[in-house]
Amino acid sequence: xxxxxxxxxxxxxxxxxxxxxxxxxxxxxxxxxxxxxxxxxxxxxxxxxxxxxxxxxxxxxxxxxxxxxxxxxxxxxxxxxxxxxxxxxxxxxxxxxxxxxxxxxxxxxxxxxxxxxxxxxxxxxxxxxxxxxxxxxxxxxxxxxxxxxxxxxxxxxxxxxxxxxxxxxxxxxxxxxxxxxxxxxxxxxxxxxxxxxxxxxxxxxxxxxxxxxxxxxxxxxxxxxxxxxxxxxxxxxxxxxxxxxxxxxxxxxxxxxxxxxxxxxxxxxxxxxxxxxxxxxxxxxxxxxxxxxxxxxxxxxxxxxxxxxxxxxx
Length: 314
Ligand SMILES: [Zn+2]
What we know:
Layout: H1 3-10, H2 25-28, E1 29-35, E2 38-44, E3 48-51, H3 52-56, H4 61-64, E4 75-78, E5 81-86, E6 91-94, H5 104-110, H6 116-122, E7 132-134, H7 140-143, E8 147-149, E9 155-157, E10 163-167, H8 168-176, H9 191-196, E11 199-202, H10 204-209, E12 212-214, E13 217-221, E14 230-236, E15 239-243, H11 266-280, E16 286-288, E17 297-302, E18 308-312
Parallel strand pairs: 6-7, 7-10, 10-11, 15-16
Antiparallel strand pairs: 1-2, 2-5, 3-4, 5-6, 8-9, 12-13, 13-14, 14-15, 16-17, 17-18
């Protein structure tokens, strides 16, 4: 299924805050396309819901609800998109959803479905073939399936043959367990991988010196949501896609000032969004949205009001 078919096929869902689990393989695989010679597949850990007010920060509901309708509890439909890049020699996974370590209470709040293993299977991607996992940051909804929780309480790597990559600053921030965001950092998602040596911790200096994780896949810092938020660039044969993560979580967040209440430094997010558009728009990048269940990818242009807007969904 390509992105255009995906969009057409789900257009009738647009505007509905329905977050029932997908019930067919076509819904489990959110989009599929090529970036140059690379195959790009968008898998999902399933739809989930978060408070619309938190997702749009200081933006009045009367404005955001036109783009993201809220349910009776003010929650909006979101996605948990994992990008899978097959370069020809490597299989790279970007983000691993919420995973299966949520408490029953948190599962009820978020209505999440733990679907990434089924989604990968529907796309024909085995956990064993994954060579690289990249976490743009270590919030619980981006690295949950890094590891799998078993009934006996043990935790094992979900992708046994993979090298995992995250920013060292994210780990250090999570370990501070600050009042503001300690609930977002669940150490079983990364500490076992750090202890076993399976996770490489990147530094800002190291990324500046060599941003490439594998040939054609590189990372770049876009601080604001967290201090070390990384985007992932995917480049092949002059084609360019970018997984922009929580800098721009959904296609409804393209307006530079519509930043999330979760962002630790909203002024940096606004500045970094503008910096992103300076390249993404003229170079016609394919932008991959981490939390947009219905529009997982889009090309961005400028509308008649001079604002960034979706111009194509493939
Ligand atoms: Zn986040």
